[in-house]
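User: Can you predict the 3D structure for this chain?
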Amino acid sequence: MTTSALFQGLILGLGMIIPIGAQNSYILSQGIKRNHHFLAATICMLCDVLLIGLGIFGGGKLIASSEWLMLLIGWGGVTFLVVYAVLSFKSVWRNQYLVTTHIAAANSRKTIIGTTFAVTLLNPHVYLDTVMILGSVGGTFDGNEKWAFAIGTMLASILWFYTIAFGAAKLAPWLGTPKVLRVIDALVGTIMLFIAYSVFNTLSIIPIIE
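Assistant: Here is the predicted structure, written as structure tokens:
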């Protein structure tokens, strides 16, 4: 039964993480640029692991019961996603993808760390997937099965984020051309705006939730 719970956690975790979202788009972009992509993947993974643990072992109820906290996370996420989308479209407009250097990439470690935390912690969908959904399902298990389910979901996060970081870096010679980078920035900007719009719609119903 413990093995079954771990497998259920792995499958459900992958189902929550694999769909293209802010985290995946960002890691894919950094992987193609080979710009601290494993650092970004590690931060996303650690945040997910902590949030999954928080949700499964009872913290999800605290967030769900606080209207002001939900609104704070939501509006912060909308603002960040829109700004990030604007920056992506600005890169598309300027089309200066050849003007990059290894020095510039090396000096951007702090920026990568800050942006990765923002992409993760200011994205309300992360809390919905990890704390609310995975936390609710994990709460139905008891004892060792609950731990097995939690480990399975956390393993899904570890496997997925490192896989896309490694895969994007390996495919960088083909994906890292100026034309492809421009298309990717356009897609990332579009995804960010779509997520921001969906979060905005969610925020509009929070005040009427009892």
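The chain is about 80% helix and 0% strand. Confidence is low (pLDDT under 50) at residues 99-107, 206-210.
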